[in-house]
Amino acid sequence: MSHLALYERHFVHDKLSTTTQTVSEARLMDSVPEQDEMQLDRIHYVLSMLQTILSKADPYLVPSSNLDTA
Fold first, then answer.
1. What is the dihedral of CA 15, 21, 22, 28, to 10 degrees?
2. pLDDT tens, 26-67?
3. Cα separations (Å) of 30 from 37, 41, 63?
């Protein structure tokens, strides 16, 4: 399998998406204290930035070993 295919099919993309969705759902819960809500907002922001960076990165410049440690 080519590096491009490995990059596009790497589990980190699904993991980021799933984790972002979970954090989004947790942010909407009524029982979340304000302090925790602020932390969840920050986590959501960081995960969203990671998704954006990975979607715009040149797959040939990102070693698969870096994705494996994410």
1. 170
2. 988 888 898 999 999 999 999 999 999 988 989 888 888 887
3. 10, 14, 41
* Cα separation values, 19 from 3, 13, 52, 63, 66, Å: 25, 10, 14, 22, 19
Residues whose CB is less than 8 angstroms from the CB of residue 59 and which lie 6 or more positions away in sequence, other chains included: 3, 4, 7, 8
- The DSSP result for 16-33, as a single string, is HHHHHHHHHHHHT-TT--
Tell me what pLDDT residue 7 has.
84
* Whole-prediction pTM: 0.78
> Cα dihedral sign for 18, 64, 5, 52?
positive
In whole angstroms, give the CA distance from residue 27 to residue 9: 28
